[in-house]
Amino acid sequence: DVKVTQSSRYLVKRTGEKVFLECVQDMDHENMFWYRQDPGLGLRLIYFSYDVKMKEKGDIPEGYSVSREKKERFSLILESASTNQTSMYLCASSPSTGFRAETQYFGPGTRLLVL
Amino acid sequence: AQKITQTQPGMFVQEKEAVTLDCTYDTSDPSYGLFWYKQPSSGEMIFLIYQGSYDQQNATEGRYSLNFQKARKSANLVISASQLGDSAMYFCAMREPLQGGSEKLVFGKGTKLTVNP
Q1: B46: which chain A residues are within 8 Å (Cβ-Cβ)?
Q2: Per-residue pLDDT averaged across B79-93, rounded?
Q3: A30/A33 Cα distance (integer angstroms)
Q4: Burial zone of B57 (CB within 10 Å; 0-12 exposed, 13-18 middle, 19+ buried)
Q5: What's the pLDDT at B4?
Q6: Interface residue of A102, A105, A112 to substitute, partner B, most B CBs within 10 Å
């Protein structure tokens, strides 16, 4: 059973703080993703990684960075949190291509509020 | 680039009845994959069903089935015998290839389904 966990379900931070969101998957998946979800906008890809120490920008990378030092862990970093980064953050993982469905498996999400 | 459109912001259905959630897509790739996810109020995205563009038959998973009409570029989700626990947001998504053999999912804006007792 695939399991993706995120370090916090709810987080409250102040403007200007450095924020770390952690994601861990236990299925040895190569690919990991960070999305943010906002009402009326659906899910938007921030960053993804298809291998350890590899990272690629998604659709909305500004204001974010990521780190993948180990295969199972993918961290999202808000260098200086701003109020417009208040959102729901979802982490996902998937195996590399070659599997039929190539489904992405999601964590429970982190609701971040920046004051 | 791929695009997913879900035109129903909200849908209501009576318990035990069937409901169809609409999804249309746009892509120029001959090979593609379509997904449906359920997101309860708890927030987790739960994978429901997948349809590949070359699959000969419509996908089914228990009470979920996909009405795939390739010529119309639609991939509607049909939920039979609705249950109160089906109340959630439902997202249609399409696979978009990325470098390195990875992929991202392009999501629609979702449909909020409410099942009434």
Answers
A1: 106
A2: 96
A3: 10
A4: exposed
A5: 94
A6: A102
